[in-house]
Amino acid sequence: MRSGILNVYKEPGFTSFDVVAKLRGILHIRKIGHTGTLDPAARGVLPVCIGRATKAVNLMANWTKTYIADMQLGIRTDSQDMTGQILERNPVSVSEDEIQREVASFFGPQDQIPPMYSARKVGGKRLYHYARQGIELERRASHIVIYDIQILSMELPHVIMEVTCSKGTYIRTLCSDIGDALGCGASMAALERIRVGDFDSKNALRLDQIQEAAAAGRLEDILYPVDAVFADLPALKLPEGLTKAGKNGAPIAEKTEGITCLYEGEKQSRTGSDWRKAGLGLAFRVYLSDGVFLGIYVRCEEGLRLKNFFYEERL
User: Fold this and answer.
1) Which of 18, 39, 81, 111 is catalytic?
2) Which end of the chain lies in a sparser environment, N or C, as judged by fewer CB atoms within 10 Å?
3) Domain 65-188 - what CATH class?
4) Considering the chain, what is the average pLDDT of its residues?
C-alpha cells in the first residue's frame, strides 16, 4: 500500500501504542507511527502515519490540538484525572461567575508542570514509572499556550470546556490547576480530542471501520496523502527534465528554468510568479512533472535544497 495518513478515532481503553499495534496487524506493515499520545481513558482524533509518511510525525507533533474536557470540581487525585486514587474531597462553594472568570484567566502563554502520571521522560525513564513506585520527582515546567478556552456547559460539580492548545499541554493538569485556583481542587473526568491540525473527529474512523475498509480493498479511499500535511505551503512543479534529479533528492540550482509555480493568492504574494524571488528559508512543496509529491524544499542562496523527502515509486 502507498504511504499516507489515517485519521483514526481512538476509543477508550486503548493506548496510542495499542492503536499502532492493531493497525500493523490490519495493514500488514511495520512502518507506522502516531502523532500525539492520548491517555487510555481518553478518546478522539489520533492521526497515524503510514510508510514514508512517518517522516512527518515530528512535524505534525507541533500542531495545535482541540479538546472537550469534563472537569469535576471538588476532587483531587494523584493522577489529576478520575482514574487515579482520590486524595481529597472538598465542597464546591464557588459560583458559576467565579468559575467563568478563573477559567478565562488560563488563556494565553504560561508554564505548566507535567503530571507524574505522564509519558514525559526524566533521566531516561518515563514519569509514570516513578509514579507507580510512589516516587515524586521535581519536574521542569514546560512553556505552553492556551489559544482558546471556553466553557460549554456547567452542571456543578462538572464543567465542560473546549480547549485549543499547543504541543505539550496536559489537559489533566489544566483542570487540576483551575481547581487549585478556585480553592476546591479538580480532576479531569473525561476527555475527547476533536481536532489535531486539520484532522477532526467528524472524519475520523474507528479501528473496526479501518479493518472493514482494508477487507474491502478500500484503504486508498481513506488514506490522506502525505502532502496534505503541508497544504499551507506554496507548491512548485519540476520540468520533466528534472525527473531523475528529483527522485534522487538532488538540490535545484538557482538558474534552473521551467519550474511551474502552483500557488495562488496569499501564497503567491510572498514570491510573485517566480520562486527565485522567495526569501531565504521559505519552504515549498515540490512535485514531479506528473504530479507525484517529492518533499519539502527550502530556498537557499544556491537555489532549493531538500529538507524532507517523501518520494516513493508508484507500483
Assistant:
1) 39
2) C
3) alpha beta
4) 90
